Amino acid sequence: MAEIRLEKLTKEFKETLAVDHIDLVVEEGQFFSLLGPSGCGKTTTLRMIGGFEDPSSGAIYLGGDDVTDLPAYKRNVNTVFQSYALFPHLDVYNNVAYGLKRKKVDQADIKKRVEDMLVLVDLEGYGPRRINQMSGGQQQRVALARALVNRPAVLLLDEPLGALDLKLRNQMQLELKRIQREVGITFIYVTHDQEEAMRMSDRIAVMNAGRFEQVGAAQDVYKLPATAFVAGFLGASNLLDGEVEGADGSSAKVALAAGSTIALPAARLPNERGSVRIGVRPEKIFIEAAGSSGGGTENRGDNAIEAMVDISIYTGVSTSYECSTTDGSKVVVYVQNMGASADALAPGSKVRLSWHPEHTFAVEKNSSTEGGDNEMSDRGGTT
């Protein structure tokens, strides 16, 4: 059963089209993320699902019911905001119990549900604490408990970890995923952080300019981005100009402007003829000095281009290289530092870059690249 369905959902603010006729289906029990930069429409979409914004047109269905015109308090959803919006004059117990008391739930039931929820968010025994005695991470857990104690069908989360430091943020990402699995309800999570989205989500919608560029499982969106924007936004990506030469069965050939012809699965071509952009992730590329024997086939891919090292950066767990091809394209390579290895290739070294055809994807040449290009891009973006 589809827990959430959006049909041609649109939101206009005066002359600005914030959300542009989007369609979406989120299945019951999924952890679903709306991913994109500021201004892409993801928070506006979340607010329309929650009933905090009225759509200009389109429809919103929750559990099969049309709730487009229902106010927020009549929808079986709760929201956790980045600011938490906790009551500073109430202790933890009464913050969590607030919604139940307004619904006039029996006191014994309130006590049990609040205590069970504090256990779930790892705050057992914290009921008497004042909010100003809690750390940022603990306050986030209180806000989550307050939202979940009402047993909503859907929980909406608008960048709830944005105010936390990096270490605590990473910890809370794992906690959120654990809690979602334990309670089993649908989570809709808004973020501009692509690593955060991939770490927690069952499915991701990448947004840009009020529209969805791609919706799918996290690993599918990463491995096979549908547009240049998605390729550059969801992690670092290399995009190289090329011309389709044709397909032979399940395999296709593309002549790169960098001076070689490469292969890829024919089904991944956006068009059978003409210009395309060929993509490969930095961690999928092998790098070796030009003319090297390579030390065996495990260090070589069937697709290859010649390049020169511009920059070499040692980061401990890996070494990253930025290289230039003969046509001036930039290619980034990540090499994991495994055991005793040879010295890093120095800037100015001529190298052979290779990768396997199955690690190759293709996008239309004229597709948006605002989310990133063929450089080390991990900036936020939407479609």
Task: Note down, in words, how this protein is organized.
It is elongated, with a radius of gyration of 24 Å. The protein is of the alpha+beta class and 383 residues long. The two termini are 27 Å apart. It is 22% helix and 36% strand. It has a 6-stranded mixed beta sheet with strand order 6-7-8-3-9-10, with helices on both faces. The protein has a 5-stranded antiparallel beta sheet with strand order 13-12-11-14-20. β17 (318-325) and β18 form a beta hairpin. 40% of the residues are buried. It has 2 domains: 2-223, P-loop containing nucleotide triphosphate hydrolases (Rossmann fold), CATH 3.40.50.300; 236-364, Beta Barrel (OB fold (Dihydrolipoamide Acetyltransferase, E2P)), CATH 2.40.50. It is built from 8 helices and 20 strands.
What's the short version?
The protein is 22% helix and 36% strand.
Topology record:
Layout: E1 2-13, E2 16-27, E3 31-35, H1 42-50, E4 57-62, E5 65-66, E6 77-81, H2 92-102, H3 107-120, H4 136-148, E7 154-158, H5 166-183, E8 186-191, H6 194-200, E9 203-208, E10 211-217, H7 218-223, H8 228-233, E11 238-248, E12 251-256, E13 261-265, E14 274-280, E15 286-289, E16 303-314, E17 318-325, E18 330-336, E19 350-355, E20 361-364
Parallel strand pairs: 3-8, 3-9, 6-7, 7-8
Antiparallel strand pairs: 1-2, 1-4, 4-5, 9-10, 11-12, 11-14, 12-13, 14-20, 15-19, 16-17, 16-19, 17-18
Helix pairs in contact: 2-3, 2-4, 3-4
The appropriate CATH architecture of the largest domain is 3-Layer(aba) Sandwich
CATH class of the largest domain: Alpha Beta
- Mean pLDDT, to the nearest integer, reads 89
The residue fraction in helices comes out at 10-25%
% residues in beta strands: 35-45%
Kindly name the structural category.
alpha+beta
Strand order of the largest sheet: 6-7-8-3-9-10
Instruction: Please report the distance between the alpha carbons of the first and last residues.
Output: 27 Å
Q: What is the CATH topology of the largest domain?
A: Rossmann fold
Overall number of strands: 20
